Amino acid sequence: MAYSEKVIDHYTNPKNVGTLDKSKKNVGTGLVGAPECGDVMRLQIEVDEESGIIKDAKFKTFGCGSAIASSSLATEWLKGKTVDEAINIDNMDIVEELNLPPVKIHCSVLAEDAIKSAINDYRVKNGLPELTEEGAKH
Ligand code: FES
């Protein structure tokens, strides 16, 4: 299987690997697993409380190269977006950007689910309702 250069770059040189302090109120943590393969991804966002802009994002992925590349790309895209804009990141955008083959589409779904899960955690911590489409989409 031929992987695109972008996948290989994000895999060999992942951006934003790490951990944010999940006890902080402005940090949202998402932890999701892929039923297809058992891979697990944790993704965190840190939100600037005044502007609502995501000022930092980190991930740790125990999974395949495409999942690592998808989460690396996702954290890059998250930084600088508002939480509301981040909701609209779609796994197919990740598929397109990384040129993932069909068998690896679920790896990008994992990244989208992790983003939504992190946003939900942030919302609940800050007294906002959970996203209603969570869980229903996939
Ligand atoms: Fe399952 Fe990539 S093979 S996340």
TrEMBL record:
Residues 2-126 form the NIF system FeS cluster assembly NifU N-terminal domain. Pfam families: NifU_N. A scaffold on which IscS assembles Fe-S clusters. It is likely that Fe-S cluster coordination is flexible as the role of this complex is to build and then hand off Fe-S clusters. It comes from Rurimicrobium arvi. PANTHER family: IRON-SULFUR CLUSTER ASSEMBLY ENZYME NIFU HOMOLOG. This is Iron-sulfur cluster assembly scaffold protein IscU. SUPFAM superfamilies: SufE/NifU. It comes from the Bacteria. Belongs to the NifU family. InterPro entries: ISCU (IPR011339), NIF_FeS_clus_asmbl_NifU_N (IPR002871).
